[in-house]
Amino acid sequence: MKPVIFVLAYLILAPFVGALLDGIDRIVSARMQRRKGPSLMQPFYDLGKLFSKEMIAVNNVQLLLNLSYLVILMIAGSMLFAGADLLMVLFILSTADMFLIMAASSDSSPFANMGASREMLQMMAYEPLTLLVAVGFYLTTGSFQVSDFLTRDYSAVIWMPGLLFGFMFTTAIKFRKSPFDLSTSHHAHQEMVKGITTEMSGTTLAIMNIAEYYEMILLLGIFFLFFVNSTWWSWIVAFVVCALIFFMETLWDNVSARVKWKTLLYSCWVVTLVAGGVNILILMLIK
Amino acid sequence: MNKVSKSPWLLHYDASSCNGCDIEVLDCLTPKYDIERFGIINTGDPFQADILLITGGVNSQTESVVKQLYSQMPDPKVVVAVGICACTGGVFKECYNIKGGIDTVIPVDVYVPGCAARPESIIDGVVRALKVLDEKQAAMKKDGR
Ligand code: SF4
């Protein structure tokens, strides 16, 4: 019964929580820049407007591909919240991203196509570490099942601080935050018009935004797993730490400038190798 | 809830401005004026924009660009002409390559005069454009689009 409730809660609440977090993010960012910023509900207004706009379809597959991106992300998230196999969740997550890349390459805009190739590059940058995180969880808890992580009497982070750091580092890519927002940015300005979303408008863009909210909650869910254990208070700790991590991503977004693709690739791989690799090595030796 | 004026995204194009008005447009984004408090985002993408904000008059090179940007924006949309050049052609009006104000190529909804237009009057013009935007959305709904 419990997994069903979790999955339903995720499917229904994730877009709302995601949009709210986005609203908070925009206000916090504005305050960091000594501006007042938009209202908390701004992401909801944006979505409402996007759905009400005239439909401009650049071709007849883009909407479908974007919908696939959304649905597959929903599946990945549901599996995580149902307590299923973490490795599987991560694989489905990458599959979802492929649909976004296809959606962007399906139109004729050179900016969108460039965004699509940069998105692939970003996948190459974060994918190794994401896999190491799954392996780390296995070595720590002896299982890939998310539901098993919750029953251990220690938090996974004790054994995998390096992996947590690495995951925080690479999540900036997934959250589309500076310095790693190469393919498209969650800010209005980008050097390639809008990157992958250049030719998406109205409903198509709204669907992509909702999908990103689902993804955001999924990623925060993985952060959650680092801290949670069988005690009830660990859930509170995990919530607080997730909020803190989200704040730190916003801070990082505001204090750093966008990097070139080579820097992105090398820095992510170095972090993967040093923080992730060493962490896994130690785990393998002493566990 | 889905009123378009609650989240107007803005596309700024420099048709042939002397850059005086452009600087003032960018001023609106700074902490002092902060147009994001109205939910306005200065996007660079016509596909996602609701307001087309143009500075400078139209010349023979930018005419096709202005038309294309306008046609790429999904309805409902409004056009704001910022600066006297964009309104009528201004001091460049008699130039051999200038066609005149923006309204010689596309319909303009709000005119913001001034040389350069002050950030306050630009914000004022954009906020007036929001009303037009809502009217256009209501008209669209009535037509059943
Ligand atoms: S109105 Fe004045 S400041 Fe603006 S573009 Fe024309 S000449 Fe430049």
TrEMBL record, chain A:
The keyword Membrane applies. It holds the Pfam family NADHdh. It is a multi-pass membrane protein. It is found in: Membrane. This is NADH-quinone oxidoreductase subunit H. It comes from Candidatus Mediterraneibacter stercoravium. The keyword Cell membrane does not apply. InterPro entries: ComplexI_Subunit1 (IPR052561), NADH_UbQ_OxRdtase_su1/FPO (IPR001694). One of its GO terms (cellular component) is plasma membrane. Keywords: Membrane, Transmembrane, Transmembrane helix. It comes from the Bacteria. The chain crosses the membrane at residues 6-24, 63-81, 87-104, 125-144, 156-175, 204-226, 232-252, 264-286.
Automatic annotation (TrEMBL), chain B:
Residues 18-128 form the NADH:ubiquinone oxidoreductase-like 20kDa subunit domain. It comes from the Bacteria. The keyword Magnesium does not apply. Keywords: 4Fe-4S, Iron, Iron-sulfur, Metal-binding, Oxidoreductase. GO terms for molecular function: 4 iron, 4 sulfur cluster binding; metal ion binding; oxidoreductase activity. The keyword Iron-sulfur applies. Its cofactor is [4Fe-4S] cluster. Its EC number is 1.6.5.11. Gene3D superfamilies: 3.40.50.12280. InterPro entries: Complex_I_20kDa-like, NADH_UbQ_OxRdtase-like_20kDa. Transmembrane segments: none annotated. It comes from Candidatus Mediterraneibacter stercoravium. Belongs to the complex I 20 kDa subunit family. This is NADH-quinone oxidoreductase subunit NuoB.
